[in-house]
Amino acid sequence: MITGIEAFKGINISGIGNFRGITINNGGHSSGGHRVSIIKKHGGKYKQVPYINEYIKEIAEENRCHTFIELTGGGGRNILNLPMFEMDGDIYEFGRKIYNEYDRGLCNLFNCVKDPIKVQQLRTLLLKLGRDEELYRYAIDNKSKEDIPELLSAAFTYMAAMLSWSGNCQKESYLRGKTDEDSKKIEKEYFRKIKKLTKNSSSLRDIEIINGDYKPLLKKYGADPKVVKYIDPPYHPITRNQAALDIYDLEWKREDHQKLVRELLECRSWILSGYDPLVWSCEDYLPLEKAGAKKINLGVFMSGTNSTKTRKFDKEEYLWIMK
């Protein structure tokens, strides 16, 4: 039984300390068509990025926006792959970009990847830790705890996502592989992605990372038309498998979605992603449409393909957009 970090595999920690032969100091600083991805995350919008970008660009050009905020950051798929747009005849990019995320582990991961020195330490640590199911389970329980140092929290967060099915970070979802050959492929791919982490440092260089609730940012910038707000909360509970309502690090109840809708009614220049509760005869998002928000059906995004298609029994992804 694991009773603490120190008890696992003979790990001796001082500060962070000596971790399987590597000394890690606590703290200290010293794309074309390719989409940047640092971590896979359940409910991420990797395949939807090109579609969402069209509407981000539309709002930015019309309102002459200077700032982009991803309010519930998750895997950061949108903020890492923002479009450039035209303003006054010149190609323009957002002058300010903010990634906001409630989960401490994700913010620690992004902060470490952003820092040229810390990302090297993270890469080395992950390679030393290896691929281990017992440590994977331990990582899930401890990745976001306040007493876990930043670098170790970042490593645990990466392991929990990248060693789980679809990045859902569930203990029963460890990627073992059905055969020895499958297992070897999973292991090879896992280490290949770890070795590429350092290449993502520049993608985060000009992104502000905030660990907190979305509400203060929405209150501060919500009514400002020159600030694009993108929010991708956990899917409305009525649209989800009722036996799997504990997938996200921070789950949202129906009341949380209703509160978000009330807040968005007072805001401009925003995009909301999700399934449409109205398909399940729930009118919680309907006030947005009545207030003038445009609803866009993006179609069904099937696992393992970049195409979209609509089928009667598949869940369609939607955007609600207010300029």
TrEMBL record:
Keywords: Methyltransferase, S-adenosyl-L-methionine, Transferase. GO terms for biological process: DNA restriction-modification system; methylation; mismatch repair. GO terms for molecular function: S-adenosyl-L-methionine binding; sequence-specific DNA binding; site-specific DNA-methyltransferase (adenine-specific) activity. It holds the Pfam family MethyltransfD12. This is site-specific DNA-methyltransferase (adenine-specific). Belongs to the N(4)/N(6)-methyltransferase family. SUPFAM superfamilies: S-adenosyl-L-methionine-dependent methyltransferases. The keyword Transmembrane helix does not apply. It catalyses: a 2'-deoxyadenosine in DNA + S-adenosyl-L-methionine = an N(6)-methyl-2'-deoxyadenosine in DNA + S-adenosyl-L-homocysteine + H(+). The keyword S-adenosyl-L-methionine applies. It comes from the Bacteria. InterPro entries: Ade_MeTrfase_dom_2, MeTrfase_D12, SAM-dependent_MTases_sf. Its EC number is 2.1.1.72. Gene3D superfamilies: Adenine-specific Methyltransferase, Domain 2, Vaccinia Virus protein VP39.
